[in-house]
Amino acid sequence: SPSDDVHAIQAKWQERWATADPFRAGDAADTRPRKYVLAMFPYPSGDLHMGHAENYLYSDIVARYWRHRGYNVLHPIGWDSFGLPAENAAIKRGANPVTWTYDNIAQQRTSLKAYGVSFDWSRVLHTSDPDYYQWNQWLFQRLYEKGLAYRKDALVNWDPVDQTVLANEQVLADGTSERSGALVEKKKLTQWFFRITDYADRLLDDLNQLEGFWPQKVIQMQRNWIGRSVGADIDFEIEGRADKVTVFSTRPDTLHGATFMVIAPDSDLAAELAAGSSAEVRLRFQDYLASVRMTSEVDRQNTDRPKTGVFLDRFAINPINGERLPIWAADYVLADYGHGAVMAVPAHDQRDLDFARAFDLPVRVVVDTTAPVTGAIPVIETGAAGTPLDLGADEASLADLDPATTGIALTGEGRMVNSGPLDGLSKRNAITRAIELLEAAGTGRASRTYRLRDWLISRQRYWGTPIPMLHTDDGRIVPVPGDQLPVTLPASEGLDLKPKGSSPLGAATSWVESVDPETGERALRDPDTMDTFVDSSWYFLRFLSPGDATQAFDPAAARAWAPVDFYIGGVEHAILHLLYARFVTKALYDMGLVDFTEPFSSLINQGMVILDGSKMSKSKGNLVLFQDELDAHGADALRVALAFAGPVEDDKDWKDVSTVGAAKFLARALRIAGEVTSDPEVVWADGDAALRRVTHKLWSDVPTLVEQTKFNVVVARLMELVNAIRKTIDGGAGAGDAAVREAIEAVALVLDLFAPHTAEEMWEQLGYEPFVGLAGWRQADPTLLIEDAVTAVVQIDGKVRATLEVPARIGAEELEKLARADERVVRALGDKQIVRAIVRAPKVVSLSTR
Ligand code: ANZ
User: 349 with 256, same domain?
Assistant: First the structure.
């Protein structure tokens, strides 16, 4: 059957590729220009799925393309093989995490080979191999030396089901765990962090470099995640307390409008202020705190929720006018943002206004938003969400707009009132002036706040990179000496892997007990393991010298290959992985280990393969299995069908993925290659002119189409060419026509991007040596690209005076120019002036002199 043929061809070429290894990247002596093409490496849970099929197809298209264009291409593959699923399988089914992981890797590896992806198989890495994770430990220690890895007690996100700590990024918008679905709680633990916040400004500012090369959506998500706010830190004296309390405000201009202060109830400060208050206040505060602890972060940030809070019976002094401000604890103020305390300006902040109205607190307007602000307003840094500031003056009178009655805070532009020295200034200028006044008085300063938190990297789980630190008996924390790395994981047998909030490694006594390198006394290994996002934050560098036993990566190879030219993966990694990789790259740059500051020069997010409009998943039972599709029609048909189904970035409904149609198309192309009777030396110029035009149009258009990742269009053009060839053969020119050979060779060369097995087979049938995957591409002959001509008519005052042969795609302006310049038109016009020209390109130019 035809399907047997397909599988035989597939097996034949996969074997030849395995033997000849043609897709290995060239070595250091290779003088060709380089391209580093990378698809996000897979997590080895089960076999490949359709998401992988898309991801590795697209990177393969790009890798094959650059090879044909004469580039030395690096297209590596590896496995992101540490992580919870291996461990959960161990807990659920008693599987050994090592066996589970490496069995899955073996299966995925076989599938990727069966899929015909042109990887450099000599560079495979697994992050769970000691010779990989040793360098995670190296990285950790380098960051530690630079003060970028540190330990602190922290309120962490706690998944009560998985019994583990979660990164902020793993908490979904509804406050539940991305892993278990449980409502995430807060818990205080001592944890290791990477100080990514030191890089907040650079991570934000360097996004500008990526504009146009990364999806706009990803850039925006990263901007929001970093969330830089610009404003001031303002110090308030507190009655009965020695130290001042600092608040962060984006609106220091409104200081005269502050009528109370609000503190996060779950902050140390709130507890302290309550403790210094009456017994009654203490009780009410404790009750309130208990209820706040039950409220998710997301609910707390929900502005629609009725405001709650308790008065602490303590007072702050406004540094700008000496006013006494009552201090409240309320849960709309978050403990870990800014300083966990705000000056409340109810007239100009909606949350403060809602609170003031709920508790009957005064509202004082200090910005007259009916006063027009004229003149150039400097560009103001917008809020984290990119909200532009409105500049128009409100139409109504200020009295009508009183927030205390309308319930609507005045947030727009305007001029300052009731604000002493700031009166009359525009809001923008008042912000600047207020900061100057605060700085002069020593009670405040310009400041920035970020939403970005430090990266919590320790996990109390087994299947990860051990943290290479020792805790000495006398309480010091010291790095494991470099020559003792890697600290390898102990075997899991006999360890209780069930999550319980402390690492299973702690119970591996003989493993945990070690020696303090300085004193020779006993020291305990840190029992925690690293977040697997550490593993993937630098893996693209390890591919450059994967077997290197002496260093994480070879700096010379990094100079030669990195950054990655083309990176592709799912949009689910828009924040976590990409932000961490950017951070680590910048840290390595600062250590002088790489000479670039951004890891991925261009990024594409492929869409999902969906079924009937919804995501495929095991739980929904609507999985289309990768292996089933391979078995049914072969790798090439699946690859062509996926590439043809739509633009790379779009979701593709499986209903629109026609493997049957793709298989028919491939059979048609292959049949033609077998029919060709001319030999490779035939002179193409003797061939059918119309077919030659279609072929050369393909050569002319395909580079741009591939480089713009319009792969579906390229497939359409191949189909068009195959149809044209068939028509030419059957139309009388026959299979011996030189243009037929030229065209089908073009098909084989370009089809290699999509259907490499079929393309190799065609290439062989056409009398060439393997491999078509390494064959150079062809240039379009420009003389064959001239477009079809049409006849345009030029009229003067309604009479036809000339006809012109013009390209069918001529523009109106160009056509009018040609018409006016035509000799016959000039003669017919004499000394009359043209007063009007109506042009309908490409057919008519109508000139009037009256
Ligand atoms: C006074 C003020 C007046 C404010 C005004 C805003 C408008 P973004 O832009 O999101 O950074 N704030 C500060 N720390 C907070 C915390 N821990 N929890 C909740 N809110 C906090 O917001 C900065 C503004 O959010 C700050 O500026 C502060 O309120 C509040 F007309 O100060 B503002």
Answer: yes
